[in-house]
Amino acid sequence: MEEREQQEREERSRAPHGVGHGPQGSSPKGLWAALLSIEDNRMVIAEKKIVQIDYSLRTDAGDLVDSSEDEGPLSYLHGSGQIVPGLERALMGLAVGDARDVIVEPVDGYGERDPDGVFGIPKTAFPDAAALEVGASFVGEDEEGNSLPVRVIALEGDTVVVDANHPLAGERLHFHVDVRAVRDATDEELAHGHSHEGGGHHHH
Q: What does pTM read for this prediction?
């Protein structure tokens, strides 16, 4: 018995530094747990955080609609409604370095198409200098005085047919997102409801 104990003590003394089993050493398992603990301390996306993401947006057909490739990362205040609800929920809890593919249904994106969103407006309602052509965009007002962006989809005599639906209304949205930065919002950013960093001009 004494010989076995002596042999075990000798084996432990020859163990590589840092891989012992006592309080002076750290096993690989213990080291992995420590790394996980450090990883868990990363700041994650949550309300009142300023987030920077690179992204691409495609339709069901695979057509690229928008991306941050040319303009740089999108910076936004999480929880402020600056991006579509479905994407905002999917990004909750992610941290810098994380990437995610997100499919957003119309109800959580730009909504379903509303047939009543297509209507005619007399040409006389537009300024004389307005360039009335299919594809032109204008901002009017609804019955409650709120801004109402519309697109011209047809010209019929003295009537301009416009569509007030968002161009992506009714579309399933396919996002690929890479999280570039996460930080606390400043008091000023919280008061203004948006990020004060560059890149806050995207619309998704």
A: 0.71
What residue numbers bound the domain in which 152 lies? 115-163
- Of 185, 194, 203, the C-alpha closest to 43 is 185
Reference 87, options 185, 181, 169, 175; nearest CA is 175
Asked whether the CA dihedral 115, 143, 81, 66 is positive or negative, the reply is positive
Query: Is 105 found in the same domain as 173?
Result: yes
Per-residue tokens: 76 = 């936004």
> Counting every residue, how long is the chain?
204
Which residues, 6+ apart, have CB-to-CB distance to 171 below 8 Å?
59, 60, 106, 109, 110
Strand pairing class (99-104; 118-122): unpaired
The predicted-structure confidence for 156-197, as pLDDT tens digits, reads as follows: 999 999 999 999 999 999 999 999 999 999 999 999 999 998
Q: What CATH number does residue 121 fall under?
A: 2.40.10.330
Nearest alpha carbon to residue 72 among 180, 174, 173: 180
